[in-house]
Amino acid sequence: MSFIIFSDPVSTPKIINSHPAPLDPGYPDFGGRGMHGLVTHAAVLHFYKQLGRPTNFTEVTLHRVNEDYDKGPRLVYRRVPIESEDTPETLQVRVKDMEIIQLRDFWSRYTETGVIPHAPRQNRLIGDRAQLLEEAKRIAIAQYPKG
Prior knowledge:
By secondary structure, the chain is α+β, with helices and mostly antiparallel strands. The protein contains three helices and four strands, in the order ββαββαα.
């Protein structure tokens, strides 16, 4: 988790967080209390396993910090491949690599343009599977109690 505080010339200071999984502000997602470090990656892998169908990606999400934990507007995101043999540890390596690339690209664009993008999710991430998501989070927190 990375918090970045900055000011632009026409507004108040902003705080941006890099989250290592998909977020869908205002809807069930892989954010919230306890969702950090290996817990997040374990929750993603458990969720997709419970669905009974493979998925081939997770996301790295930059979002504004607001009063609701991990619910600030999405600014940018990048997909990260999930391999069939992934563990939370192996997935974390690729996610961290992508976080570095995404942060570098975000700040480069912001420096050049002064514009902060906004990337709302067009389709709901979890939909009617919120119960499966909560179970995946519970399992992941039990598996990695210290994150």
